[in-house]
Amino acid sequence: MTSEITLFVNPTAGRGRGARAARPAASALRDAGFSVRTVLGENAGDALARARAAVEDGTGALIAVGGDGMANLALQAVVGTGTPLGLVAVGTGNDFARALGMPLREPAAAGRMIADALKCGRVRDIDLGRAGDRWFGTVLASGFDSRVNDRGNRMRLPAGRFRYDLAMVAELAAFRPFPYRITLDGGDVREVEATLVAVGNGSSYGGGMRICPGADLTDGLFDVTVVGDCGRGTLLRVFPTVYRGSHIDHPKVTVFRAARVELAAAGITGYADGEPLGPLPLTARCVRGAVRVVGP
């Protein structure tokens, strides 16, 4: 493996933490003997083009510095190439890095861990989800949670996570279950009233909400969590248990496992790794061993 590696940096991640985090991460990698180049972009499309060019030029690894959005963008550049992906997680959610066991908001520690892993050959292949031409590492969200995202993305104020807390309160006021048609592995069709349906390659989203707690990045299958037609009161009682993953014990929650999931519901946007995919219907496929990652 070449000793030149690429830092793929989102300077705005975590209210500016991305730009600040690049420096200690780069220093840790250089101290370990790596030559480091940095890739930025004027926008997401430009950044992705530059990252893909670095991969095509033979960089030894692509290291995404930012949050889950930056990790998702980096996935699009390395998937299927054999180029290892590393994560310096300094965003708001960091769920992909959490799933890989990487340090969170500790860029120097992440840089040292990545350097050691590259030197020792600690890389592994993990599964990814694919919906259309978009790859994702953690969870495809749809339903109540995606409606909260929709509303939060339309709000200009306040800044940060509090915006989404307010969006959640507003969505609760207008809450109703949604009629879904769910098709598993091309045959098992279920028509249900559901609060949300989450398709998990990884276990968590939203900064540690373990919506699919049993999801395994290497088994070739999604965990599909269906939260049924519960009312506001039940939703408010169940919601806090998502951080422990114990919500799956509630009678209104069902978990399926499948390699291919088709979701259809009117007026619902799908989000994967926190990024909008577009309106349902969507089909997600779990692709075994789709990407090589650097980890502990």
Automatic annotation (TrEMBL):
Q: Which PANTHER family match?
A: LIPID KINASE YEGS (PTHR12358:SF106), SPHINGOSINE KINASE (PTHR12358)
What EC number is given for this enzyme? Answer: 2.7.1.107
GO MF term list: ATP binding; ATP-dependent diacylglycerol kinase activity; metal ion binding
What family is it from?
Belongs to the diacylglycerol/lipid kinase family.
Membrane is among the record's keywords: no
Indicate whether Kinase appears among the record's keywords. yes
Q: Where in the numbering of this chain does the DAGKc domain appear?
A: 1-135
Indicate what this protein is called per its UniProt record: Diacylglycerol kinase (ATP)
GO (cellular component) term, any one: plasma membrane
Cofactor(s) the protein needs: Mg(2+)
